[in-house]
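Researcher: Can you fold this with iron/sulfur cluster in place?
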Amino acid sequence: MKVARRELSLMEKLYLPEIVRGLMTTIGHAIRPSHTVTRQYPEQPTPLPAGYRGIPALVTDEQGRIKCVACQLCEFVCPPEAIKIVPGQFSDSNVEKYPARFDLNMLRCIYCGLCEEACPEEAIFMSDVATFVVSSREQAVLPKERLLEIGGARPDPIGKWASK
Ligand code: SF4
Ligand code: SF4
């Protein structure tokens, strides 16, 4: 169906009044004293909103035991293939597997949170770590040890380490 277009008035065709109106708004905001937004970062960090998704991080239980069982679900669902896991095998435990390697490429990660959603062990969480500074592409691949350092310990409602 064809939609009829409204005929523009002369003032609308000129555009100038609208440009002037926009400039007046900009100038009004610029000179309003309450609009000073300079923040002394990093001494004065920017407050993060609730639910902020920072670097995805691995966590341990309260006894410092890694929660991840290297099921590789997060690796499978990660849209940009940012996660690479090499599973290891326990020989003397009721827990079968652990991640011998768990690398997270932060140059690929899009902070979507799907890894956290997919994890059956609550072993990976979106942390509130927003600052990420590296000086090479290699440093942007975070190993398991660094991810555990960021994640820290969390309560373990699943209890995979409890003997059966
Ligand atoms: S947040 Fe998204 S992109 Fe980043 S590692 Fe998790 S699933 Fe992959
Ligand atoms: S973090 Fe979770 S989903 Fe990813 S391998 Fe470990 S247990 Fe599986």
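Model: Folded with iron/sulfur cluster in place. The domain at 56-151 is CATH 3.30.70.3270 (Alpha-Beta Plaits).
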